[in-house]
């Protein structure tokens, strides 16, 4: 039964997130953020569509849709394992770079299935406003390790900008909704 619960199903949207062990950080230097996203692009964009993300020093958030993979019927893609391999590759590189040992992430990554379009928009705003929620910045425009600025400027590099803007109707509404949303936890 657990295998079914943990499965990431093609066509579904998920809020994917995890945090560092204890008081540690996943990102300690600027170069860590770029490396994490480049590794994500290299290892995960074949399997998922990315709609938004936010990386803060001790945790991260992604909003993804799992892509169906065209392969022979005898081989199924274990999407959760693909994510696990991506996180393990980052942790291994991080540990090598900083001469550390042990787990970097606190647990298996978490995922929350998104079932409706209202909640989908709420998750986009929640992810982008996360640095404000955690007191890292006061203004959403001040945090460069989020897809929010990709949407406002020359981008996006990783995300499906057109799709997200359609969920909000246009850029003006997208920006407006990000200024109104309270910084509470989402369920």
Q: How many helices in DSSP terms?
A: 7
> What is the tally of beta strands?
4
In the CATH hierarchy, the architecture is 2-Layer Sandwich
Q: From N to C, what is the helix and strand string?
A: HEHEEHEHHHH
- Major sheet summary line: 4 strands, antiparallel
Q: Tell me the CATH superfamily.
A: Transposase IS200-like
Rg estimate, integer Å: 16 Å
Q: What is the CATH C-level name?
A: Alpha Beta
Distance between the termini: 23 Å
What is the oligomer described by this structure? single chain
Instruction: Decide which structural class fits the backbone.
Output: alpha+beta
For the record, the count of structural domains works out to 1
Q: How confident is the prediction overall: mean pLDDT?
A: 87
Shape label: globular
Residue stretches low in confidence (pLDDT < 50, at least 5 long) are 1-5
Fold-level CATH name: Alpha-Beta Plaits
Fraction of residues in helices?
Answer: 40-55%
Strand content: 15-25%
Q: How would you write the strand order of the largest sheet?
A: 2-3-1-4
Would you kindly provide a brief summary of this structure?
The chain has helices spanning 2-6, 30-44, 79-97, 117-133, 147-152, 161-168, 171-180, and strands at 13-19, 48-56, 59-66, 110-114. Residues 1-5 have low confidence and may be disordered.
């Amino acid at each position: 039964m657990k295998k079914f619960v943990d499965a990431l199903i093609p066509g579904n949207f998920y809020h994917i997130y995890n945090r560092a062990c204890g008081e540690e950080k996943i990102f300690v230097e600027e170069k860590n953020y770029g490396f994490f996203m480049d590794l994500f692009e290299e290892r995960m964009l074949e399997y998922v569509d990315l709609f938004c993300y936010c990386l803060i020093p001790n945790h991260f958030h992604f909003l993804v849709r799992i892509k169906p993979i065209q392969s022979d019927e005898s081989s199924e893609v274990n999407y959760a394992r693909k994510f696990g391999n991506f996180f393990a590759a980052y942790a291994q590189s991080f540990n090598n770079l900083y001469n550390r040992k042990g787990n970097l992430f606190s647990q298996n990554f978490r995922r929350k299935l998104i079932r409706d379009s209202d909640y989908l928009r709420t998750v986009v705003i929640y992810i982008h406003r996360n640095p404000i929620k955690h007191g890292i910045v006061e203004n959403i425009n001040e945090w460069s390790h989020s897809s929010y600025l990709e949407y406002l400027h020359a981008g996006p590099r990783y995300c499906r900008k057109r799709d997200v803007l359609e969920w909000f109707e246009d850029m003006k509404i997208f920006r407006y909704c990000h200024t109104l949303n309270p910084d509470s936890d989402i369920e």
